[in-house]
């Protein structure tokens, strides 16, 4: 499978993008480690006074709005605006967008100020961003799992509304941009039993965007390989009768295996 993605992976491993992550404390360490395992690196900085400066030394920006507060959201706008000025790709992970009015209002402000290269979200978050969600929120988990047709329709509407590539995740993922859409299958359901499965996927999308990949290519590559990683981690953990903790750890081994290439002298 990875040979399909050799060019994009070679490019990422040559550039070794540094991603400015405005992320959430729940998954911050996993996000930093998954980027290192894949071949890139992370810098987490969310003080508004330094956000623009840190953005300028990175190849991509990840705006993960889990655990939001007013100052963090201000830093997201500053970083995103600077990235737009410098032509640095911005990936949005609107964690729990449908969970509170505050989140949705702040996300509206953010998306009005910053042009995203890619939005990676679950199905409830997609509906919230489209203002078609008024059900009981699943919090940061999705409160909705649609049919493949409905999920594809959701992804198409999101790409149209936000004029960027999108990856709407769930039991299967749908990547969409402009008129095209692709469904990614496989993977392992245990990915939804650890926290941060989506946060890490968003980070991998940002990493590939930072390797000068087209956001559509970045999303379908990260999405497909992340599913392969989950399958591999599932197989490996079961060999030693490992449970969900072993699965979590094996995901990092899998990302090294599927994404990382050592480069001479490094
Ligand atoms: N039932 C499933 N089978 C296979 N893969 C799944 C399943 N559910 C989720 N995934 C995968 O898990 C990853 C996380 O997707 P999910 O939709 O759970 O994101 P999320 O809710 O934003 O996650 P988090 O907030 O925990 O970071 C994606 O790669 C997704 O495709
Ligand atoms: C559990 C949780 N709460 C806010 S962010 C987060 C991690 C999953 O996005």
TrEMBL record:
For this UniProt entry, the molecular function terms from Gene Ontology, in alphabetical order, are: ATP binding; hydroxyethylthiazole kinase activity; magnesium ion binding
From the UniProt annotation, give the residues forming the signal peptide: none
- Name the catalysed reactions: 5-(2-hydroxyethyl)-4-methylthiazole + ATP = 4-methyl-5-(2-phosphooxyethyl)-thiazole + ADP + H(+)
Q: Which cofactor does it need?
A: Mg(2+)
Q: Which Gene3D superfamilies match?
A: 3.40.1190.20
Among the GO biological process terms of this entry, one is: thiamine biosynthetic process
Binding residue positions for ATP: 120, 169
Annotated substrate binding lies at 44, 196
EC no.?
A: 2.7.1.50
What domain of life does the UniProt record list for this protein's source?
A: Bacteria
Tell me the InterPro entries matching this sequence. Answer: Hyethyz_kinase, Ribokinase-like
Functional pathway = Cofactor biosynthesis; thiamine diphosphate biosynthesis; 4-methyl-5-(2-phosphoethyl)-thiazole from 5-(2-hydroxyethyl)-4-methylthiazole: step 1/1
**Leading EC class:** transferase
User: Which Pfam family is one of this chain's hits?
Assistant: HK
Keyword hit for ATP-binding: yes
UniProt KW keywords: ATP-binding, Kinase, Magnesium, Metal-binding, Nucleotide-binding, Thiamine biosynthesis, Transferase
Q: Membrane-spanning regions, if any?
A: none
Q: Which HAMAP family match?
A: Thz_kinase
Entry similarity comment: Belongs to the Thz kinase family.
Query: Could you tell me what this protein does?
Result: Catalyzes the phosphorylation of the hydroxyl group of 4-methyl-5-beta-hydroxyethylthiazole (THZ).
- The name this protein carries in UniProt is Hydroxyethylthiazole kinase
Recite the lineage of the species: Bacteria, Bacillati, Bacillota, Clostridia, Lachnospirales
The gene coding this protein: thiM
